Amino acid sequence: PTLDDYYEPWTYDYKNLFDAPEGGDQPTARPISMITGDYINVEAGPNWDDDLGGSPIYAENDPNLDGLTEEQRQQLSAVERLVFFYFPRICNHCLNPCCVAACPSGALYKRGEDGIVLIDQNRCRAWRSCIAACPYKKTFYNWSTGKSEKCILCFPRLETGQAPACFHSCVGRIRYLGVLLYDADRIEEVGKAPQEELIEAHRSMILDPFDPEVIEAARNNGIHESVISSAQNSPVYKFVKVWKIALSPHIEFRTLPMLFYVPPMAPVMAGKNGNVVNHVSDNLFHDIDEARVPMKFLANLFGAGHEGKVRYALRKQKAVRWYRRALTVGDVEMKVAERMLFEAGCTPEEAQAIYELTSLCTFEQRFVIPPSHREEAIQMMEDPQEHKQSVGFGFLTGPRRGF
Question: How far apart, in whole angstroms, are the C-alpha atoms of residue 318 and residue 245?
């Protein structure tokens, strides 16, 4: 492929924007080619397929669209009728990270104390095998430093009891962080499970932090009491293991990702015919099969192509909304709401707990971060006393090219 097959990188004439003499017109920053230095007319860019731009090349060949009808495909890609399905993604910090296995230099590693996958910038030799290996494409190459980089889950913040920056700053408060205890001896077994059994197999290796045997095993493996207590209060454990409404993205990649998503309901509330907007349903919410995002699309994204687990999560969410509506507004019959809870495998107590954690939770309930025990990680390799007077995190010299 040539440069024209992708796009010509450019910058802007910021000097003219900031230093233009006083005049009657607003100064502008014209695009300038980073290849030739000449002014250019931008015809394509790295985010050219975003939003209303349409995408006849990439989006139409999205593997998540497999199984959708031609009509659904056209509806999803029609200009100004696009479904904005924003999917906030960071590194999944997988239990079976293929980026770690692919690195010839051994620069990638998964920390034992918290499971964060990191790249050692001193050992990285720019092989870039991690970029090709990661099916989620969360590793990138920094051409300025000559090193690969990725999400570090803001581990310096976690070690000081703070939530990662993207979690902390989320306006919608949709991100939760907590401890999950898992059986590491079963990683290979779960990774080899049949595709239709992957979701349950993945859940089965997440251990019950209230089980006396699990607590005893955790203590025997050197896990601190504060970590066990945090696991018992973990919101992620409730979403994934107890309520079973959170799913991993593309579990069929078999990297066993440890970030989970609650599938969106995306209801169609109204339809437009000319200049008239009409409600499309007489009920509070229509059936989950009539959502703006096709069920098959969600199944390809969160259910390894199988709709059962996604349907379960959506039906439980819908049942909780009907139940709360019956309690607070009263325009839904309680008998109907209780029947929906029963059909969704949910009790009124569980529905109330889901409502409180998703709508009324405090900062401390969203982010249950155990105290960091770096001394336990350090003592596996060297004497913690050597770091007694240390300040800060990592090395002070920034990564760069050359020797």
Answer: 11
Average pLDDT over the chain, rounded to an integer? 87
Percentage with pLDDT > 70 across the chain: 85
Task: Note the residue count of the chain.
Answer: 403
Here the tokens at position 42 are 């931008």
Q: What type of residue sits at position 293?
A: V
From CA 268, how far away is CA 262, in angstroms rounded? 18
The number of beta carbons lying within 10 Å of the beta carbon of residue 145 is 15
Q: Give the residue carrying structure tokens 């900062």.
A: 363
Q: Which two tokens stand for residue 334?
A: 């309680």
Instruction: Give the domains, in start order, of the chain with CATH numbers.
Output: 3-77 (no CATH), 85-153 (3.30.70.20), 174-372 (3.30.70)
Question: What is the C-alpha radius of gyration for the chain, rounded to an integer number of angstroms?
Answer: 25
pLDDT (0 to 100) of residue 226: 93
Highest mean pLDDT among 38-52, 291-305, 309-323, 373-387: 309-323
Residue 258 CB neighbour total at 10 angstroms: 21
